[in-house]
Structure prediction request, 448 residues.
Amino acid sequence: MDSDIALTDLHAENRVYDRGDGNLRRRFRQPSVTQREFTLPPADKGKDAWLFLAGCFMVEALIWGFPFSFGVFQEYYTTHEPFSPRPSGIAVIGTSSTGIMYLSCPILFAAFKHWPHVRRHCTLVGLAINTVAIIAASFATRVSHLILTQGVLYAVGGVMIYCPTILFLDEWFIRRKGLAFGMMWAGTGVSGVVLPFIMSALLTRFGFRTTLRAYAVALMVLALPLLYFIRPRLPLAQTSLQRRLDLSFLGTSAFWIPQSANVAQGLGYFIPSIYLPTYATSQGMTGTEGTVMLALVNMGVVFGAIWVGALTDRMHVSSVMALCSLGAVLAVFVFWGLAISLPMLCLFSLLYGLTAGGFSATYTGIVQLVKEQDTAADTGMIFGFLALGRGIGALASGPLSEALLHMQTWKGEAKLGYGTGYGLLIVFTGITAAAGGTSFIARRIGLK
Prediction:
């Protein structure tokens, strides 16, 4: 069948199946009525698919790169007025922005399932909220103001852009889904390499108020044209034929085993990105050297997201999760725990980003695993609850990491990184990284 086909103005009795090659296979229970001609662009290839993916990459970089560069703001807020006299809660700013974006995903995916026509409109509203949130944060005088604006409000806008993008990408890429998601998520890493240096320079020269306002303007100017390319591949008539919300997949072992590993890994994953600049300063290094470490983590994420996504298309997802966990454990306990010199810490940053940073690119493999057990499961809802698990870890890691750091366990008693006062943070990060590989063990002992 040719891709230029007639599509009925479908009513509830019709069923449309997308084969992913630009063709539709149709089965009708009743005769069609008025028809119109349209062209369905092919999946996995072609100009439209790659322009869409490029748009996703850039939007991902602009929206997620900002909170993933929070370590620079963390170091600035803890050492400058008006926040340095009462720095408690500063870590919560960064974890709340990422955590709430993740936690809100199931709500947004469920809403889009019932009202798919609002998906593209939400991206525009989300961008407006992001811009307002950053500008509002520039007027903050207390840490609580930053939590509400740079943290919570920014997250609300970000998730309104992120969720439609996930749903659209699932339509545009079918056979290369893992690679496509990995390339999109690599945008966060690319932005995280560049933004820390830009933000650090702006904060040093102009302060946080001007820096935040400048980024708000840049975000609107750069992201608004890109939203044109963030659009669905399938006509709305097809996606509007919805089943009832089915969450039965939550009870399948194919979901809850990797989800448990996902939550555990998320508890410690964000800690290095938050504390590396502060850790570097505490060890007598310069702010620039701390920024370099943060940038190297994000550089690792770029390559990690792509190679993990590609591996997920070829290997069992539990094996890929185990590889990510093994590399992250090695990075944390050896290259962070046993070193306080800049070269070793830079090596840690790069290896950690490459392995732990690529972990979320396994989500496409988890979705496929769940759908093998429960064919009625909705892709968006599976992604949403995986993101929810990541968000639980992100939100909890903020206050938890502050509490661990406040204890100053082993400071002056242990050696190297473990004796710097950050020892408990290092150990906790390593343990949670190891927990990310438990789904591989579960598969080996026969749990499916």
